Amino acid sequence: MRCNWCQKTIIRNLTMPEIVWPFHLDEERCQACSELLTPIVAGCPTCRKAGSSIPCQDCLRWHKIYPTYNFQHEAFFQYDDAFHQWIHQYKFLGDYRLRKTFVVELRHFFKKEKFDVICAIPLSKERYLKRGFNQVEGILEAAAIKIEKLLDKKVNTVPQAEKNRSERLITPQPFEVVATEQQITGKRILLVDDVYTTGRTLFHAAEALNAYHPREIRTLSLAR
Ligand SMILES: [Zn+2]
Ligand SMILES: [Zn+2]
């Protein structure tokens, strides 16, 4: 079997369940690749930013803007050089094989946490056509997570990665709700993005959905 990131062969004996049920063998990350990543073990209690055990400055600022939104974010890894390399290869070079790199983390998360609706942050039509895939849908589908489309990205904004911090924060609302009220009202919703940087994207998405009174909106990203 091969590592789903570096594609090098992984040499180990198969377990008995793997011999009987050999369908998840392409979901393994090798030891060397796993050791490159830095798992988030604590961090800010609301956004998981490293180095903060109380709500961080970012979260306090968001709370002032959205005082009634009970924000709760989860992330698996720190956004460091290793994660940057991974996302560069997957998202910007378009190496679609890498959609399986975090299958194990996602399966583990969704075993513990239950939601009525799971929604990937959408791309604009232009970006989707250019990239050929939605990178967030890719990672969720690789882990066999059922997703629903609640939002459309109506404008093709400059990618967040190409802006500085203050430019990101003043981005206007880019999302519109395309779901029915029944899909949102009273539901436990999880919004998923690849990276949480300033939080601007996820807060915009949550703001659009909150107008339809979901029971709860939580958010998840691979990296923070
Ligand atoms: Zn590897
Ligand atoms: Zn925070």
Task: Explain how this protein is built.
This protein is of the alpha/beta class. It has one domain (37-223): Rossmann fold, CATH 3.40.50. Helix content is 34%, strand content 14%. α10 links the parallel β5 and β6 (216-223). The radius of gyration is 18 Å and the shape is globular. The model has no long low-confidence stretch (mean pLDDT 92). One zinc ion binds next to α3. It holds the Pfam family Pribosyltran. It comes from Candidatus Enterococcus lowellii. Belongs to the ComF/GntX family. Residues 173-222 form the Phosphoribosyltransferase domain.
Outline, from the CA principal axes? Answer: globular
Spatial order of the strands forming the largest sheet = 1-6-5-2
CATH second-level architecture? 3-Layer(aba) Sandwich
At the first level of CATH, the class is Alpha Beta
User: What structural category arises from helix and sheet content?
Assistant: alpha/beta
How far apart lie the N and C ends?
30 Å
Instruction: Return the CATH topology.
Output: Rossmann fold
CA radius of gyration is 18 Å
Our count of helices gives 10
Largest sheet: 4 strands, parallel
Beta-strand segment tally: 6
